[in-house]
């Protein structure tokens, strides 16, 4: 983004569109562009030209030139913002896919490190990846919806309760990743860190019927995601005055004028169901252990 902005500055300099600048001005330009603040520089230039065009005593021709420069800078600023938002969107998508792949790679690496365990084949890796991608997409969107409809304090409370419950469950399981003593400080710290991971997805930490454990965890995740996504529907379907102002935000959303309020709820549910279907297909068809016995046991 900053590279494009600097290139435009040099083009304007060559064709003499940009007025002459001092070395100090160029130093500040380069500094702020290095800090990835190119839109801010363009916005500042637009404001400067706008103020300059209204100075008393200017001829109509000079005022028109300043106004035109202001419009040029405003257009460049808008283009930079568009590039920035596109880059942020691409970054979010790659972060989502990277997180899904990290969970997939962890599972494949864990099985590869165990001689007695069969390795996951290529199709199994693909279905495992789509399983994690679907569940993560639903979870991240649900958390984003929750953050957009409730005030920050209540968002922290909701996520904090989930984190504490997950960390407490890990402690009761007696993990020994960092110390033979499950109650050692290092092991407890690890449990709390892993509990933060469990706010987004779950990682199997014990040998046994992992499909049963995954089913129990995803039942909780599915309920939470549905509740969080339903809040968007509720807050955009009811009159704001009927909602407690101490909990919910009262800023109207432009999304409500573009999409029906139940759209995000459908996306959350469908992406979660897609992930669960991929999980079922993985366990039935591509699990390294072969045929999976049908049955259920409470993994707590």
TrEMBL record:
InterPro entries: XK-rel, XK-related_scramblase. Signal peptide: none annotated. One of its GO terms (cellular component) is plasma membrane. The keyword Transmembrane helix applies. It is a multi-pass membrane protein. Its main location: membrane. The chain crosses the membrane at residues 89-108, 120-141, 153-172, 217-239, 259-284. This is XK-related protein. The lineage of its organism: Eukaryota, Metazoa, Spiralia, Lophotrochozoa, Platyhelminthes.
């Amino acid at each position: 983004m900053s590279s494009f902005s600097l290139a435009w500055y040099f083009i304007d300099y060559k064709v003499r569109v940009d007025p002459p600048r001092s070395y100090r001005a160029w130093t500040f330009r380069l500094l702020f562009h290095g800090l990835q603040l190119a839109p801010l520089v363009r916005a500042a230039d637009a404001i400067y030209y706008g103020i300059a065009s209204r100075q008393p005593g200017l001829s109509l021709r000079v005022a028109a030139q300043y106004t035109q420069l202001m419009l040029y800078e405003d257009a460049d600023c808008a283009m930079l913002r568009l590039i920035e938002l596109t880059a942020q969107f691409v970054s979010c998508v790659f972060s989502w896919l990277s997180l899904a792949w990290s969970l997939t790679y962890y599972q494949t690496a864990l099985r590869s490190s165990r001689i007695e365990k069969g390795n996951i084949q290529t199709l199994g890796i693909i279905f495992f990846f789509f399983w994690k991608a679907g569940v993560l997409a639903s979870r991240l969107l649900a958390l984003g919806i929750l953050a957009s409809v409730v005030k920050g304090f209540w968002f922290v409370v909701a996520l904090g309760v989930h984190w504490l419950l997950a960390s407490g469950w890990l402690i009761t399981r007696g993990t020994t990743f960092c110390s033979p003593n499950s109650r050692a400080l290092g092991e407890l710290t690890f449990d709390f860190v892993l509990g933060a991971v469990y706010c987004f997805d779950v990682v199997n930490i014990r040998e046994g019927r992992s499909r049963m454990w995954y089913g129990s965890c995803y039942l909780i995740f599915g309920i939470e995601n549905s509740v969080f996504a339903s809040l968007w529907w509720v807050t955009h379907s009811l009159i704001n005055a009927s909602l407690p102002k101490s909990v919910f935000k009262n800023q109207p959303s432009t999304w409500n004028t573009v999409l029906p309020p139940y759209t995000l709820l459908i996306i959350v549910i469908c992406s979660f169901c897609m992930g669960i279907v991929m999980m079922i297909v993985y366990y039935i068809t591509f699990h390294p252990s072969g045929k999976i016995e049908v049955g259920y046991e409470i993994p707590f």
